[in-house]
Each structure stands twice: as C-alpha cells, then as structure tokens.
TrEMBL record:
GO terms for molecular function: nucleotide binding. The keyword Nucleotide-binding applies. Keywords: Antiviral defense, Nucleotide-binding. PROSITE patterns: GGDEF (PS50887). The lineage of its organism: Bacteria, Bacillati, Chloroflexota, Ktedonobacteria, Ktedonobacterales. This is Type III-B CRISPR-associated protein Cas10/Cmr2. InterPro entries: Cas10-Cmr2_palm2, Cmr2_N, CRISPR-assoc_Cmr2_N, CRISPR-assoc_prot_Cmr2, GGDEF_dom, Rev_trsase/Diguanyl_cyclase. It comes from Tengunoibacter tsumagoiensis. It holds the Pfam family Cmr2_N. One of its GO terms (biological process) is defense response to virus. Residues 336-473 form the GGDEF domain.
C-alpha cells in the first residue's frame, strides 16, 4: 500500500533569526537545509517518489551540495509510515550530531553534557501520512495538510533539566537568544583578569565577543564548517562596499601606493592592539586587502577596543583618511547603511492547489522549478555584490550594498517570473513580492531582520501583490516606507534616482513637502478631496519652483524633469487654465518615495564617483 508522507523540521524562523553576527544567520539557514537534505535522502528507495523536493539526481541530496531544501518534505512511499519516519528521524539526528561533534570536539572545556542536551532538544520533528489515492492527489494532499496541522498542535514536553551549578551561582543565559544557558566556563569571564586578555581568550577559543555568553547552539553557528558556505561578510563590511568600489576606481599608481601604505600602517597598529579583527577569506581588495571594512568605522573601534587602543588606532585611521581625500579630491567616508532583501512568492498556495488537481507529477515539476530558482539566487545576488543568506523555494533572504539593492531585487523578481512559466495556459502565474530594509550596520541584526520582514509583508499586502516595498530605518526618527507594484514603482524610482544624481531635484524638497503636508493634515483624520487637491497643487508649486530656480539645469532638462513630476502628481498642464488635476494622488506616498531613494542615491554616487550629487 502506498502513502502520501510528510515530514517537517522546526522551528525555522526562530532558529535562523537567533543571530548576532551574519555568520550566525548564514550557518543557521545552511544547517536547516543540510538537515532537510539528509531527511529527503533517507526516504529514497525504489518505492519512493519525492515531491518536495524533487531533485533531478539523488546526488543533489548529498551533504554540502548546492541544493537548498526547505524544512517540509513530501513524498509518496511504499513502506509503512512508521518505518519511514524512523528512517528519516535517524538520518536527521545523525547529520545533526555529526555537525555537532565536529564543532564540540574542537572546543576546549565547554560544559559538554549541557551543550549536547541543547542540541538534542533543538529540533521539532513531526510527520504525518495518509493512504495515497492516485486518482485524487489533491484531496489526499489536503487531508495530509489537515493532519499536519493537528500534529503540530500536539506538543511533547521534555523534562526540565536543572542547569544551575549552585543556588548561589546560576549560569548566565545566552547573549543571543536569552533562553539557553551559556556553556563556556565561567573562568573566561573572570573580571579580575585584564579586559584585553579576557577578550583575547574568548575570541581565539570560542569566537565570542568581549563578555559574550554562548550556548551550545550558538557555538555550532560560530564554528560549523560547510564546503558550500559562501564568503561571510559583516554588516559593516557590506555597508562599506560602495566606498570600496570607489577606491578600486583610483587609477593613479602614486595615489594607490600612498593609500596602501597608510592602510598598512593602520592595520599594523590594529594588530598590535587586539587579535579580534577577522580576515575575509577569498577577498582581495586593491587597498584593504583581505581586511573587513568594519575597520573603516570609528564607532566599531569604540565598540571593540579599549580607550587606549582606540586612541592609537584612531590616529592611524585619520592618516588614512587624509590620503583618501588627497587621492579623490573629496572627503569620502563610507555610508553606515546597507540593505536586506526579503522576498516571497505570491499566490503560491493557489498555484500548489491548482497543480495538485493535475496530479503529483505536476507537483514534482513545480518543485523542480522552485529548486531551479533557489539555486540561481546565489548567482544573481553575488552578481550584484551581495551575499545570499537563504534561498529555499520561493523564499529569499540576502544582504546587499545600497548601490545595487534595487536592481538586485528586480533581477530576482524577473528570474522568478521566468522560472514559473508553465506550458499549460490555465496555470496561475505566480509573482515575487520583495521587501527591502535599509538599516544601520550597527543596529541589532534581529531588529534589522524584522524590518526586512515587515517590508516584505507590506509588499505582499499590496493590492494584486507583485510589489516592491522599501523601508528606511535610521537610528533616529521614524521609519519611512514606500510600496507599489513592480510595473509602476520600479521605473519611477529609477527616474527619481536619475534626477537626484543629476541634481535636478534638491534633497531638501522632500522635507519641505513633508512640512507642508504635516501642517495641513493631522494623522488619524480622513483627508477630504478638496484637501488632497490643495496638497497636489502645493506639491506641484514647490517642486516647480525648485526646478526652475536651478541655474545648473538646461531648459530641456527642466522641462523633462517637470514633466516627470507632473505625470507622478496626475496633473495636466493647460496653457489656458494652468494645472488641472486628472485624479487624486496621495502626496504622502510621493514624499516617502523622495525620502527613500536618497540613501540609495548617496550610495550610487559614492560607488561611481559622483559625490557632488550629494549636495
């Protein structure tokens, strides 16, 4: 007898999200994929048909391959479900324990029993099965999902383990999630030792920051090694990429040599003071070499160094900035912001149900197309100088520099749409909604991820979906968000960026518009049509005045810029009556669009040598 069989591994989001460094995030997502591959591989035999995933070759499910597998595995099996569940669970924990042992065996003096217990109780393994009706696959799958929902609502609670060495000396909790206990010996946090020695030992032995408490799960994320793991960049380094691209464009050999010498002096001083700075494997920047761009930020020195160390390093960094100014003839400094892209497919449930009506073979085809998209995400993100964090099916998470964030997001949406074209004309065509969060490199990683997820949710809640949402979360002030369908907002943002680059629209225009808007409209009120018209006319007047007073613009450039503004405001210019409103437009959306593109413009100007566009 055949069964439709489903296995899930969790928790997914809490596990991945529990991260302080980018490495924690990368390894967390890769670990879950490796475990899911182990489960899928264990199910394979002559009587098994994998549906999700549906690899072209069994070799794709071997450890450390490029294939990314989601935490939900569906298959048609020919053996008893209990037997297959036992086989899957055994493979899952064998792979998990193999990775755990590789890490823990290399670490000195951790509380191994506690660390082992934390790994053993890390995952939720759930499975359901129902007799397979080959003539009614859709109904069978629907019943399977119902069973899974019931199974997930049935929890097993493991016995409580007392993890306190004594009632007077409780263990510290993990600095990452605040739930699991620290397994690093307390002697490494002894405050009677000099702070520099404590920091050195914690970093060299455990990859822990000064005073950072790490659980067994945290240590696995810090130390696990996967052959397919990409070059992991810190959020600070990603923020510096537009600046580093600009440095690479310096062609004068004398200027390059001076910059290299100044940087070498700075690095020498850094290495004298602390062993905490990491090198980027495989990276070789023209000036920085293999050093993390985080060292370009004064605020990172303040975090990682003592006051005395900071003073010495800061002096050398200032010398480097003097050479940068001489080489570029400008006071260039890296911007503190980077972008997180979070994307998800639209109407996937509708597509999955539709394909289910056609039988499991069509489900396998859908699975293969999703796998093809997921495997191509890495190449797309890398081409735009970013780093892919996770790509499973229609779900994408990536870190990218600001100057490439917008085209990278668009390229992902285009590729997804192309991969999801089926031969049958009646198959719904899914789209990809994308959220981009522009965040500070020192903001808590979990907060930044939340911002990206909020942006993605905003995009998916847009009417008809297939949308892009961008949110800017600066360290002070309220977040600013803009959202629209890909067909309208993407070309319009490109137009705005070009106008800002060419200084056709001054940056102050957005703030003047916002001041007028806030003076005429109170939040919570319902805006009348008359007030909306007043704001449209006022926006036109302000922007027209700023454009016409720009003496650096040609007559043709002024006319072209004004036309773009008029089109966006939905206004028609009549020689007889003046501007006429064609339809109501939300001025708040225009203000947010003007504000959102400004950090992107600054990064583009930084990367391609147009810093004068910042005026």
């Amino acid at each position: 007898m055949s069964y439709l069989f489903l296995v899930t591994i969790g928790p997914v989001q809490p596990f991945i999200k529990s991260a302080r460094r980018t490495r924690d995030l990368f390894v967390g997502s890769m670990l879950l994929s490796e475990l899911s591959k182990a489960v899928a591989l264990a199910l394979i035999d002559p009587e098994t048909h994998l549906i999700f995933p549906a690899p072209i070759s069994e070799n794709q499910l071997q450890p450390d391959t490029k294939l990314s597998v989601a935490n939900k595995i569906i298959a048609i099996i020919g053996h008893e479900p209990q037997e297959m569940a036992k086989r899957a669970r055994t493979a899952l924990f064998e792979r998990l324990y193999s990775i755990r042992n590789q890490v823990f065996d290399s670490l000195p003096a951790i509380d191994r029993p506690l660390a082992d217990h934390q790994i053993e109780t890390l995952l939720d393994f759930a499975w359901v099965a129902t007799p397979f009706d080959e003539h009614n696959y859709a109904k069978t799958r629907s019943r399977l999902e119902t069973l899974l929902s019931a199974r997930k609502n049935t929890r097993y609670f493991v016995p409580f383990i007392h993890t306190t060495t004594s009632s007077k000396n409780p263990r510290y909790k993990s600095s990452i999630d605040g739930q699991l206990e620290c397994v690093i010996p307390e002697k490494y946090y002894d405050r009677s030792k000099p702070a520099q020695l404590r920091a050195r030992d914690l970093y060299q032995l455990y990859k822990a920051g000064p005073g950072e408490q790490l659980s067994g799960v945290d240590l696995v994320k810090r130390h696990a090694k996967f052959p397919g793991l990409p070059v992991i960049l810190s959020t600070s380094h990603i923020a510096t990429l537009p600046f580093l691209k600009r440095l690479n464009s310096i062609t004068d050999s004398n200027s390059r040599d001076k910059l290299k010498n100044a940087w070498s002096d700075y690095i020498e001083k850094i290495d004298e003071q602390t062993p905490l700075t990491e090198k980027i494997k495989g990276a070789k920047h023209t000036i920085l070499g293999d050093r993390d761009g985080a060292l370009l930020f004064d605020e990172r020195l303040l975090i990682d160094f003592t006051r005395e160390q900071y003073t010495k390093a800061h002096q050398c960094l200032e010398t480097f900035w003097k050479e940068v100014k001489e080489a570029t003839h400008s006071s260039l400094r890296p911007g503190p912001y980077y972008a997180i892209i979070h994307a998800d497919g639209d109407n996937m449930g509708q597509l999955i149900n539709h394909m289910a009506e056609k039988g499991f073979a069509q489900h396998q085809e859908l699975s293969q197309r999703l796998d093809a998209f997921a495997q191509g995400v890495g190449d797309i993100v890398t081409a735009y100088e970013g780093v892919p964090v996770y790509s499973g099916g229609d779900d994408v998470l990536a870190f990218v520099p600001l100057h490439t964030a917008l085209p990278c997001a668009h390229a992902l949406a285009v590729d997804f749409a192309q991969k999801m074209v089926f031969k049958e004309s009646d198959v719904p065509r899914p789209t990809l909604s994308v959220g981009i969060a522009i965040v500070h490199h020192l903001s808590l990683l979990q907060d930044s991820l939340d911002a990206a997820r909020d942006a993605e949710t905003c995009a998916k809640n847009h009417p008809q979906k297939n949308a892009l949402a961008i949110t800017v979360r600066k360290r002070s002030g309220e977040p600013v968000t803009t959202v629209g369908s890909w067909s309208t907002i993407y070309p319009w943002l490109k137009v705005l960026i070009e106008h800002f680059q060419q200084q056709h629209i001054p940056q102050g225009a957005a703030y003047e518009l916002r001041e007028v808007y806030q003076s005429l409209f109170l939040p919570g009120e319902t805006m009348s049509t008359d007030l909306m018209h007043v704001l449209q006319y006022e926006a036109y007047r302000i922007l027209k005045r700023k454009i016409m007073l720009n003496q650096q613009m040609s007559k043709e450039a002024k006319a072209a810029t004004l036309k773009d503004i008029v089109d966006r405001l939905r206004i028609e210019l009549s020689p007889q009556t003046g501007p006429i409103i064609l339809e109501e437009t939300d001025i708040a959306s225009l203000i947010n669009e003007l504000l959102v593109v400004q950090p992107i413009v600054e990064a583009v100007n930084m990367a391609y040598g147009q810093e004068e566009g910042k005026k």
